[in-house]
Amino acid sequence: MGNNLLKGKKGIIFGALDEKSIAWKTALKCYEEGAQIVLSNAPVALRMGEINKLSEICGKAPVIPADVTSMDDLKNLFEKSMEHFGGKIDFVLHSIGMGVNVRKGKHYTEMNYEWNQKTLDISSMSLHKVLRTAWDMDALSDWASVVALTYIAAQRVFPDYNEMADAKSLLESVTRMFGYYYGEKKKVRVNTVSQSPTRTTAGSGVKGFDGFINYAEAMSPLGNASAEDCANFCVMMFSDYTRMVTMQNLFHDGGFSFTGVTQKVIEKMES
Known about the structure:
By secondary structure, this protein is α/β, with parallel strands linked by helices. The protein has a single domain, classed as NAD(P)-binding Rossmann-like Domain (Rossmann fold), CATH 3.40.50.720. It has 10 helices and 6 strands. It has a 6-stranded parallel β-sheet, sandwiched between helices. The N and C termini lie far apart (about 45 Å).
């Protein structure tokens, strides 16, 4: 049962692949809280995933394919979304990332730079392109909210996270820079949410992920934040309760980001 936190609001959710994904759970929570939504993902991801099932659950929400590296695709997405909504857009979730070197098993010190450019374009500059498209089309309403998902590897070294650490750093920089300009122009707020490692289809593809997530659990006073918890947090960020929060990287990780060490980890090392 929702609380109508997003009643009357309209938003685009990028990146819902399957029931494990944070974008999927966020779409469900937004719908439960009274929002109308449009779902979007890359054409290949739409073929691989189960997004039509999500569409049915969310009141037959339109599914509009978009390659986020293509300005033409993004323009088409925003045009069709505004046509469907009959007006401007109140929130956007950017849950998009792909590490080509990671997928192909290239070590960070042996990076293929052409693959890396594709990684940065999909995982980071896609946010700039989404915001630029909305800016040019005046597609976002006053006080709209844009949230992109990131990870603490943008600030700290996690060896197997590879080039995605650089991509998340760039993503967070785009958030600050475009957040400044969009805030001045339309009071639009732009933030990143730095989530705990989460057992999504994409996240599980990172080398050594089980050790990764177990370590984070032991290092977090509250434990790892789940995908459901993240969805709830995103809803709050889309709501009017966070109207004055912008250009921030918000850690949603059970306290991991500010914990030096926990007793659990000490005892593990001493054993």
